[in-house]
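Model: You mentioned two targets. I'll fold them one after the other.
Researcher: Yes, keep them separate.
Model: Target one:
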Amino acid sequence: MTGDELARLLDEDSVTLVDVRTPEEFSGEAGYPCDPRQGHIEGAVNIPLEVLMVDMQAALSDLDTSRPIVAYCHSGQRSEMAAALLRAAGHDATNYVGSWHEWSQREA
């Protein structure tokens, strides 16, 4: 999925957006110097990949999983693993390949 596709889906409020980075990356307290800004995509829920791997059912208990799930991280690697795990569990899930590295370059 591209950033433009994600932006359209977010405008339509038709996806559940999951940030699988650490809480520190999500909050903007930590991050990578290659990104123009730190933080997260508005509307995202933070479920670190490690938490998703340990107890997916509990991790997703408060989410609307009837809609497609889009996962993202910093560079698309952790989120690809998360999307694969979610698909294996029967969820409609995809990876935002550009992830935060790409999104952080968009206007806030």
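Model: Target two:
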Amino acid sequence: MNAHDFTFNGIDGKPMPLKDFKGKVLLVVNTASECGYTPQYDDLEKLWQKYRAAGLAVLGVPCNDFGGQEPGSAMEIAGFCRKNYGVTFPLTEKYSVKGEVAHPFYRWAGEQAGLLGRPKWNFHKYLVGGGGQFIGWFSSRAKPMGPKIGAALDKALAVASVHVQE
């Protein structure tokens, strides 16, 4: 089993199978519109624009699990993200990311990451390789344009491009 075995619904309600991202490095982030980390939307968009051509896909997963900080409807969330942060990367419908009710991707990724690597707040990040393999995780505090995520992306994208050329 790998990340490509899971499907989210896009913010528009249409299925978004992760297998459609095969060959791309995927950064999956549980997001919220009323959080102290909400300004990370801006850096997630910059990250998406910077690495998109190299094979990165950013996927925002709105989540109301932490502090009720994502109370809006899908339309309200999409509008907020576009208007305030110019978000163009894909967003899913609102999902739970913790516990038994978590989306199956989050249950799988949580198992891969271990207890410490499970989301404890909004803007937790999972990195998935081009083959759907789990690479790692970053806490809410990790800045999308920071050196830690940048180094991990450079490495993952280099590996992904080697596999694409083979």
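Researcher: Noted. Anything on target two?
Model: Confidence is low (pLDDT under 50) at residues 162-166.
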